[in-house]
Amino acid sequence: MGRWIGPTRLAGLRSTLADLVLPTPCAGCGGDSVVPICPDCLAGLGIPRLVPPQPVHPAGLPPVRCLAEWEGIARNLVLAHKERGRTELAPVLGRALAPAVAPAGPGPLLLVPVPSRPGVRRSRGHDPVGRTAIAAAAALRAQGRTAHALPLLRHARTVRDQAGLSSTQRARNLAGALVARRGASAAMPGAAVVLIDDVLTTGATLSEAARALREAGIPVLGGAVVAAVLKRA
């Protein structure tokens, strides 16, 4: 005899099947799509490229690669993942970001996500940058690379919301805010360390993250972000 399925469970199964079959809005353009990001929007992220130096970038900022400028599709994707709970975007963004992470050479890679403020992470209910870093590491391993994502950084003190702050104010707000977790220096010795974030604005956050790791004896090779704010000529 077949196993009886109650009405509540049956409704859940129907909902799951509908999610698999029915179109959902593409997080990039809003059009109907059977995948989180439609092929056109995914292609719009582009090939990873080195972010050129900007006047607002701090001196301690490591080399950073991005997929796109902070506008249009890239901005929509990041905000959907980060602010609107589209957690299904993490694997797609991670796979897209993986080429921006891998440096020249076949050595092991350690991806370190930049931590969100604890209160912000609780309010969102998830850690978008951490999820993206894990997905990027998984994509690199699928390509035969030795790669792992580890949360080696934590906040040492309270910081203000960065929105609306100038580059100088952001740098002051974050100065000394991050520290390496205990035992961080023993994680994957010999691995090339790459910082992961979703957006590069003034560079203050990635610069502070790099400083915290360097003070713990962990050299930082560079950073990788989905999008970057670039000054137009």
From TrEMBL:
Residues in coiled coil: none
Superkingdom, natural source: Bacteria
Phosphoribosyltransferase domain: residues covered: 177-229
Organism for this UniProt entry: Sporichthya brevicatena
Similarity comment: family membership: Belongs to the ComF/GntX family.
InterPro entries the UniProt entry points to: ComF/GntX_DNA_util-trans, PRTase-like, PRTase_dom
CDD domains: PRTases_typeI
Name this protein carries in UniProt: Phosphoribosyltransferase domain-containing protein
